[in-house]
Amino acid sequence: MIIKSATFTVSATRPSNYPPEDLPEIAFAGRSNVGKSTLINKLVNRKHLVKTSSTPGRTQLLNFFTINNTFVFVDLPGYGYARVPERVKKNWGKMIDTYLSTRSTLKGVVLILDIRRTPRDEERNFLAWIHQKGITAILVLTKADKLSKTKQKKQVQEIEKSLVLHPDELICFSAKTGQGLASVWQAIGYSIGQPDAAEASL
Ligand code: GDP
């Protein structure tokens, strides 16, 4: 994908503040610190389009970005911080549920997992929730550079088992080496109905 433009559009908490539903949209979800901002920045080849969340639980907003004036990326707030109060967790759930349930232009959710962690109920429930809504999930295992190829394979099998996935549903990704970048673009390209998106990406 040749990125001609990548611009921040708006932050929102509720549908009345979302931008108009006129472009296909991909949302990104994952626990805080998993590497979500880094992945988005790497995809659009910008260092600081998305601010990396060094303060856990602070970014409780949906952030919309328009890419090449042809599709939209939505950075969903990171989840899974024990220190976040129950009330905030509830609001997070409501905000995400409303977004996933109402957004007619949503074509897929990129669920980001750390390759070194076996998913817990939190991730299993979120994935089930996405599937239940009939939304395509793109599963990305990030920080792959932290493991050898042999260990990556072992973790892929472990995570496949834990999430009850078919083989080859997981994409190993590293922002450091660029591993998996083309595969993530390919999956996004198919989801937004632009299957050639990945072709020109590398
Ligand atoms: P977010 O909270 O999910 O947005 O996570 P960030 O993108 O801020 O990343 C959290 C930390 O992980 C940062 O220190 C990143 O530099 C690091 N990180 C993210 N992706 C990778 C990766 O692919 N490889 C390595 N080695 N570190 C990464």
Summarize the structure.
The protein is α/β, with parallel strands linked by helices.
Task: Walk me through what this model shows.
- The chain has one domain: P-loop containing nucleotide triphosphate hydrolases (Rossmann fold).
- Helices cover 31% and strands 21% of the residues.
- The protein contains 5 helices and 7 strands.
- A 7-stranded mixed β-sheet has the order 1-3-4-2-5-6-7, with helices on both faces.
- Strand 3 and strand 4 (71-75) form a beta hairpin.
- The protein is globular.
- The mean pLDDT is 89.
- The structure holds guanosine-5'-diphosphate (GDP).
Q: What share of residues is helical?
A: 25-40%
Strand order of the largest sheet: 1-3-4-2-5-6-7
Number of domains: 1
Low-pLDDT stretches are none
Number of helices: 5
Number-wise, the strands total 7
Largest sheet data:
7 strands, mixed
Give the N-terminus to C-terminus distance in angstroms.
7 Å
CATH architecture grouping: 3-Layer(aba) Sandwich
CATH class, anyone? Alpha Beta
- What proportion of the residues form beta strands (DSSP E)? 15-25%
List keywords for this structure.
single chain, 202 residues, alpha/beta, Rossmann fold, seven-stranded mixed β-sheet, 5 helices, binds guanosine-5'-diphosphate
